[in-house]
Amino acid sequence: MLRPPWDRLWRHVGGWPLKLVVLTAPLALFSDYHLFWLNMLAVHAISALGLNLLVGFSGQVSLGHAGFMAIGAYTCTLAMRAWGLTALPALVLATVLAGVCGLLLGLPSVRLRGPYLAVATLAFGMGVVQLLGHWPLLGGHMGLSVPGFSLLGWQVQGDRWLYGAVAAIAWLAYEAARNLTASRLGRAFCAVRASEAAAAACGIDVVWTRAQAFAVAAAYAGLAGGLLAFVLGYLHPEVFDYYLSVLLLTMVVAGGAGHHGGAVLGAIAVTSLHLFLREPAGLPVIGPALRAFSEAWMSAEGLAYLRYLVVGAILMLVAYVGPRGLVGMLRALRLKVVQRCSLNC
Amino acid sequence: MFAQLLISSLSIGSVYALIALAMVIVYKTTDVPNFAQGELALTAVFSCSSLLQAGLSFALAAPLALAASALLALLLARLSDRDHSGGLELMLMTIGFQFVLQGLVGWCWGARPQSFVPPFAVAQNLRWNGLVLAPTDLANTLTLSLTALGLVLFFRSRWGVAMRAVQENPEAARFNGLPVSRLRALAWVLGAGVGGLAGLLVGALAPLDPALMLDPALKGFAAAVLGGMRSLPGAALGGYLIALADNLFGAYVSGELRTLLTFACIVLALSFKPQGLLGERAAQRGH
Lengths: 345, 287
Fold this sequence. Notes:
The complex is a heterodimer.
Chain A: H1 7-13, H2 16-29, H3 32-57, H4 65-83, H5 87-109, H6 114-134, E1 144-145, E2 150-151, E3 154-155, H7 158-182, H8 184-194, H9 196-201, H10 206-232, E4 234-235, H11 242-255, H12 260-276, H13 287-296, H14 306-321, H15 325-344
Antiparallel strand pairs in A: 1-4, 2-3
Helix pairs in contact in A: 3-7, 3-10, 3-11, 3-12, 4-5, 4-6, 4-10, 5-10, 7-8, 7-10, 8-10, 11-12, 11-14, 11-15
Chain B: H1 2-30, H2 37-53, H3 58-80, H4 88-109, E1 126-128, E2 131-133, H5 135-154, H6 158-168, H7 170-175, H8 180-203, H9 214-226, H10 232-252, H11 258-272
Antiparallel strand pairs in B: 1-2
Helix pairs in contact in B: 1-5, 1-8, 1-9, 1-10, 2-3, 2-4, 2-8, 3-8, 5-8, 6-8, 9-10, 9-11, 10-11
C-alpha cells in the first residue's frame, strides 16, 4: 500500500505527545480573548463529536441537538446555584441527565425515519427553548448568571485556566468517542446505519441500539452545554435556538460525517466562521466593504444575518458535493500527493 | 370561550393546512422534505410588503410576490433534482436553502420594522353573541377552501394526472414519455404558490420579522407528518388537528408547553399509526 513520506513520522509523534503540545501551546501563546475563542471551539467540538456518533455512525438525524445542550447547561448551573454542587459533580449530573433525556427522546423516536425523525427532533429542540424562556426558576428571558468554575476547592479564574479544563475534557471526549466506535456498540451503530435488517439478522437489537446512539449523543451535548455555561458565564434561552442545532449539524457534515477528526475539524472551521461573522462590519479587510455594500444595496442593520447566509451556503455546498466534507477533500489531496511521489521515485 | 377557540383554530388551522399541503405536494412528487417551505413563504410576504410600499396595488403585488418565491423554488428544484442514495443530502440541501433565504431576507430588510397590511385585513371585526370574527379569520378559511378546490380541479386536469403518475411511479411515468423533471419542477412551483399564500396570511397576523415563519412552518410540517406526508386530505386534517390541540392546550393547560405538545403529537401519532392518519399503506413500500 502506498503511503505518503510523512506517514512514518506521524506514527511516531502523532500520538499523545503532539496532541499535548498542540493543546497546551495556546496557554503560552494567546491572550485571554483568544482563549475564549478556543474554549468555544472546544465546547462545540465536544457537541459535534456526539452528534457525529448519531449522524455519521448510527445514521440518524437530529435537528434539536441544541435542546440537549440547553438541558446540560441549565442543569449544571442550577445544580451549582441551588444545591451548592461544585463544578465537576454538576458537569457529571448535566451529562447524565441529558443522556437520560436523549434515551427518553430516542425510545419513541426509533420508529421514525428520515423527515419524520427530523421534524420530531426539530420540535423537541424548539420546545425546550420555549420552555426555558417561560420558566421563572431558570431566569426566563432575563437569563441566568453562572457561578465560577471551581476544581477541588480551588477557584478557577479567567479564561486561561478554564481553557485547561475544557481542553482536557475535550481530549477525553475525543478519545472516548474513538474507543466507543471501536467497541461492540460502535460497530452496532455502523451496522444499523448500513442495513437494519442485516443488523437484526446478526443479533443486534436495532431499537435499543438506535436509542443508545441518541443517549450517547445527548450525553455529549449535555457535557458540552455544561461547559458552555462556564465559558459564557451567562445563560440565555436564545443561545440554544434552532440556529445552533443546524450549526452543529453543519460542523458534522462539513467536517466529514462518520469521522471523529472530521467532526473536530468541522467544529473548528464552522465555529470560527460563526464567531467571525457575529460582527461582520468589524472584520479587518472585508468589513468596510461589507458595510458599504449593505448600506448601498441591503439594510445596514441586517448585516448580522450574514452568518445565516454563510452557514446555509456551506450546508448546500456539502449537500451538493456529498457529505465527505473536509476530511474527504484532505484524503483526495493526500492521494494526489502519494501518486505524485510514487511517480517521481 | 370554547366557541371562540374553535373559530381561532379554524382560522390558524387553515394556515397550517396550506403549508402542509405545499409540503405534501413537493414531498409526494419529488421525495424531498422541504424545510425551506416557510422561508419561501417568508420571501413572498417580504417582497409583497415592499411592492405595496412602492405603490403597487395588492392585486398586482401578491401575484408578483408569489412568482418571486416560485422562482426561488425552481432554483431549489434544480439543485435537488439529482440521484441520491440517502435522503440526508436532500434534507441538508433544503435546510441550507432555508438558512440562505432567512439570511438574505434578514440582510435585505433587516431590523427595519415592516408593517404588512393587505386590504383583506383592514375591515371591521364582526361580532355576534360575544364571538369575535376577524376579517383575517374569514380570509384564512376562504383561501384554504379556494386553494383546496383549485387543487382538486388541478389534479383532474391533464397536467395534474401526469403529476399523479409521477407520484405513483416515476420510472413508469418516464417510460411512458412524461417529462418527469418538468413535472417535478411544476410541483415545486405549485408548492411555493400554496405556501406563499400561507405566508401572506401569516404576515397579516403578526409584524414582519425574519423569524416570522419558523413556528408556522414547524406546525405545518407537523401537520403534513400527521397526515402521512403523502396524503393531501390528511395534511389539511392534520393542520386543523394541530391548531385545535395547540389552542385547547394553550388555553386550558399551559401556554409554555405548546411547542412540546406539537412534538408529542407527532411522536404519539406516528407510534400508533406510522403511515399517518390518512396515509396509504403503500407509502411504506420504501420510497
